[in-house]
Structures are given as structure tokens and as C-alpha cells.
Amino acid sequence: MKHEINTDPVLQIDSLVKSFGNNRVLNGFNLKLYEGENLVVMGKSGSGKSVMIKCLVGLMHADSGTITIRGKDITMMRPQELDILRTEIGFLFQGSALYDSMTVRENLEFPLRRHKERLRIRESNINLVKEALENVGLSEAIDLMPAELSGGMKRRVALARALILKPKIILYDEPTTGLDPITAKEIIELMRTIQKKYSTSSLIITHDVDCARVISNKIILLINGVNYIEGTYKQLVQSTDPLVKAFFK
Ligand SMILES: Nc1ncnc2c1ncn2[C@@H]1O[C@H](COP(=O)(O)OP(=O)(O)OP(=O)(O)O)[C@@H](O)[C@H]1O
Ligand SMILES: [Mg+2]
């Protein structure tokens, strides 16, 4: 691929190892995300996808391996540096993870309050909140509580919150899981719109084959802690390997 020759990855994982007791979840996992790319990681439940993404954002510490974001090794970073880097990365948690006691507006203001001074954001919070909600088509929900939202609406709000600092890299952990097929499609469309609007690079974790088909430039299958196979959707659906076929049937 031409961009692999011309540019460095915006995000790179090398030989990531992570165990919990005797359970070795990641056993030398590798990944390279290039600018503007939609990279999908698929793997069955319990294969370590969320563990991988948590290591990426520093919520978990890997046993070994390196994680480089924009050329900086995050495994060597102090908490303060890591905090700054986090503002460049949007993270959509598995299952939305909104603060239940806060309104939609307060949920969106949370990352702003935390990082605004350092980021020297000039715009008022309320304008940024409104823009983020407009992006996900939920302007009218600004004063609602999470309990008043449907599952699909919650996912949209979580997406708006992940985007509010206009990150260049977005990590999605199961963006469509638990949603009906139509709502899932809407979320996928939103992800595409947002990528075009802000030219972000995305790492998408999913076991939704439709999502992978529509959105991926490249797919990595995570099996037994390693990259079992990598390729485009087209390449992977044509695979005759039973383990790969099981995903795309
Ligand atoms: N904090 C933890 N302590 C102990 N074991 C953990 C912890 N977090 C994850 N694990 C284990 O690591 C493995 C991978 O979990 P992970 O959540 O990454 O799976 P996943 O691929 O995201 O699955 P799903 O598709 O269901 O979200 C599981 O066996 C899980 O039990
Ligand atoms: Mg998970």
C-alpha cells in the first residue's frame, strides 16, 4: 500500500503481551493504524479486544510490548504526559458508559472541563456541546438524563462525547453491539460521516460483520492472542481457513 511507504503509522502496537494469572490473553499482538484509515479488529468474545484497547489508552498496563501513538511510546510515559495524549484520542467505550447522574449536556462537558485550559479551547462549552450533539443528530436531547434515552441514543451521546475534543484518532469498542440492525446502520453511517468531516483515523473493535464490511480498509482477526490473519474484507471472506470462515458465515 502506498501510504505504508510514505508515512509512519499514527498508532502502532508491537508484541503486546498481557496475562491475568495463568490466562495469557494477548500473546504478541501487533497493529499499525495509518492516517485516515479505518482499521477493524475482530475476534470472538473474550479474545482480548477490550483488553487491547484498554492497554492502548493506558487504562491497563501490558506485561510487555510497546505502544506508540504519534511516534511516542506510551508505555514509558508519566501519567501527566499520558493525560495530554488522551485528549488527542477519542474513545467510545463498550456499552456507552455515560455518567448516569449527569444530563447529556453535563456528560459532554465533562471532558471539556477536564482539558479545556490546557487545550486553550476558545469556543464556549455550550457551543462545543451543541456542535457535538448536532453531529450525531441529537440536539433536542441536551437536557435529558441517560435513563431517558434509548440504547441507540445513548450510543450517539457517547459518540458525541468521544468527539468533543475533536480527536485525530478514534477508538471504537463495539460501536454497534446491542443495537437493532437499523440503529446499528445509522451508527456506522455516523462514524463514516464523522471520519470524512474531521479526517480522523479509526480503530474499530467489533464482531459485527456488517460493520466490518462497510467501514474497514483493513481487518485484523485476533485469535489466541495474536494476529491470526490480516487483510481487506474481500480477502478475508474468501479465506478457506475454517477459523476465518467462522467469522464471515
Ligand atoms: N480486569 C481483569 N481481570 C482479570 N481478567 C480479565 C480482566 N479484564 C479482562 N480479563 C479477561 O481477559 C479476557 C479478554 O477479555 P476482553 O474483555 O478483552 O474480551 P473481548 O474480546 O473484549 O470480549 P467481548 O467481545 O465479549 O467484549 C477474558 O478472558 C477476560 O476474562
Ligand atoms: Mg470487549
Automatic annotation (TrEMBL):
Organism listed in the record: Aquimarina intermedia
GO molecular-function terms, A-Z: ATP binding; ATP hydrolysis activity
Keywords assigned: ATP-binding, Nucleotide-binding, Transport
Domain ABC transporter as annotated: residue spans: 11-249
Record-linked InterPro entries: AAA+_ATPase, ABC_transporter-like_ATP-bd, ABC_transporter-like_CS, P-loop_NTPase
SUPFAM superfamilies registered for this protein in UniProt: P-loop containing nucleoside triphosphate hydrolases
Tagged with keyword Transport: yes
Name this polypeptide is given: Phospholipid/cholesterol/gamma-HCH transport system ATP-binding protein
Domain of life: Bacteria
